[in-house]
Amino acid sequence: MPTHDLPRTLTWQGRTIAWDRFGDGPPLVLLHGTPWSQYLWRPYAEALASRFTVHLWDMPGYGHSSKDPAHAVDLGFQSEVFGHLLRDWGLERPHVIAHDYGGTVALRARLLHGVQYASLCLIDVVALRPWGSPFYRLVREHADVLQQLPPAVHRGAVEAYIRTASHKGLTDTDLEALVEPWTGELGQPALYRQIEQADERFTDEVEERYGDIDEPVHIIWGTEDAWIPVDHALRLHAGMPGSSLALIDDAGHLIQLDAPVRLATELTRWTESVR
């Protein structure tokens, strides 16, 4: 799976946000999580572009977007960014597919920033307490020190961390594409900075309101997710009356890479039902 740049940019509050749009049909927006980027969604975006106008973007602090150390990259800010993007793109009720903490971004934008969707698909999302691995807790306590790790040691730590998100194992190509944005003078501190700013209060603030969402909601989860266990899918489904749930066996948190055919099939089925 090759790495693709995002050729378009826009600037908001000093951040440069990389994005792209392609395809034809109703608008659909894909949200990545952490420590990911639009890379995970690119093949799915290209497939969905036959039926939708697909919008891809990298959140500030991620991928090809700016990584200024002075800029906040917490979940509260990212949800504000998403609301601004939808207004800038002129999208009033897009279909939204979100992974990992992109789920929190979409949920907060819906509940706190007046955004509405045609439908919402949540895939192995950060939405319910508790979240954050032991690695997250370590980083929050020692972010300043970890930013100064020798580059080779840092790369080894990031590779080991990212490998745990896959149940089946990653190819060298995928691993390199996922690790590379977090290396170098900008990438290394950016990784620890965004983890340091992660906080459960951003989901606590909206969790009790998930049942207020009246758009069609579909939840997809890998049964072998070691980062956000499958019981979160069951709890989220129970807290969102009217939502539907699909569990994908033998897939971990990186469900896009662990089960690409089954995920693509499920996304096709879901998007056809709400198009």
UniProtKB/TrEMBL annotation:
Give start and end of each AB hydrolase-1 domain. Answer: 28-264
> Is the keyword Hydrolase assigned to this protein?
yes
Q: Which GO terms describe its cellular component?
A: membrane
Provide this UniProt record's keywords sorted from A to Z: Hydrolase
Keyword Translocase among UniProt keywords = no
UniProt xrefs under Gene3D superfamilies? alpha/beta hydrolase
Protein's GO biological process: acylglycerol catabolic process
**InterPro entries in UniProt:** AB_hydrolase_1, AB_hydrolase_fold, AB_hydrolase_sf, Epox_hydrolase-like
Which GO MF terms are attached to this record?
monoacylglycerol lipase activity
Stated name of the protein:
Alpha/beta hydrolase
